[in-house]
Amino acid sequence: MxxxxxxxxxxxxxxxxxxxxxxxxxxxxxxxxAQLGRARAAAEKSLERFVRKExxxxxxxxxxxxxxxxxxxxxxxxxxxxxxxxxxVEVLSVKQEVLRTVxxxxxxxxxxxxxxxxxxxxxxxxxxxxxxxVVGLHFFNPPVLMRLVEVVAxxxxxEETLAEAVAFGEGLGKExxxxxxxxxxxLTSRISALVRLECLRMLEEGVxxxxxxxxxxxxxxxxPMGPLELGDFNGLDTYLHILGSLEQTLxxxxxxxxxxxxxxxxxxxxxxxGQGIYTYDADGxxxxxx
Length: 290
What we know:
Blueprint: E1 2-6, H1 10-21, E2 25-29, H2 33-52, H3 58-66, E3 68-71, H4 74-78, E4 83-86, H5 92-105, E5 110-113, H6 120-124, E6 134-139, E7 148-153, H7 159-171, E8 175-179, H8 188-205, H9 210-221, H10 227-234, H11 236-250, H12 258-265, E9 278-280, E10 286-289
Parallel strand pairs: 1-2, 1-4, 2-3, 4-5, 5-6, 7-8
Antiparallel strand pairs: 6-7, 9-10
Helix pairs in contact: 1-2, 2-3
């Protein structure tokens, strides 16, 4: 199978690595060549960790990297592929422009979008003749480790497309849940956003430290990562953008906190900037609360 992943940020790069590890010839596309270089370096580092942990052989890691191709020409990368996974910035118009290009370049492909909260129906409205092929493929960070993929149907997504999307996820070693109603935030983003908001409110009120709030969720509720550290991991700017969209569609309960707005305004976006809810060293290791 041939796959094109559009957007070489944290999620796009991780999805491309995942599909390459699953045996698919994968093209990772981004307009920023420097970002593509960072994505390649991240894939190499990640694969090295798998080898050190003996969950992947050196030969398999080399083969996976060999299946990854990096480029800036979207139409060329998507030409004739079987699956497209769009993972660019969470801005409707940008994602729609990507879909217009890939729908023409890959006339028979599954058109997946890794959006975590935008309407699949609205995204598909940019390609009305291909709307039946557009489906949400919401992966979780990091894609190579997280077991779930959320498959989301738009109003015009066909049953055949849904089945193909679930099968694609299973082929990557993932389990799927299907969100059949194109509702803001789908299943997971809606739940996660509220939990993280309450944790931020408790932090603002001085109920407990960030570390203890996260520890309570990890040990008490078996979360693999605390909600506050997860926000830092994914980027607080991304979280603020998601909340803004959910507030518009679902109401006041999703209104961002003052602390979150201030952290983003100050450029304290999480691990990628060295400071967020927590502080981090040059290697991304947590060294304290912000």
